[in-house]
Specification:
With 85 residues, the chain is mainly alpha-helical. Helix content is 73%, strand content 0%. Helix 2 runs antiparallel to helix 3 and helix 3 packs antiparallel against helix 4.
């Protein structure tokens, strides 16, 4: 059974993938401080072209800021990480 946090973050990934950036951002922001939420936040800002803000959120998530990586592949990585038991 998924926690409500995990459900929210999986929903944020779905929203981001569908182009609903603002709704995805709002959900991720509700769980600020969670490494997965901060990672989502980083990829959202990378997608919008805000490299400085993105780097900040990657650091908060404890992840390297890799701007050569396609956001779609990161969404898949985040989803996989959230779905692990």
């Amino acid at each position: 059974m998924q926690s409500s946090r995990t459900s929210d973050l999986l929903r944020a990934v779905q929203l981001a993938e569908s182009g609903a950036w603002s709704a995805a951002h709002d959900l991720a922001q509700q769980h600020e401080g969670d490494p997965h939420a901060d990672w989502i936040h980083a990829v959202l800002h990378k997608t919008e072209g805000d490299a400085g803000n993105s780097r900040y959120w990657y650091a908060r998530a404890g992840r390297p800021a890799d701007f050569s990586k396609d956001p779609a592949s990161e969404w898949a990585e985040i989803r996989s990480a959230l779905e692990r038991p």
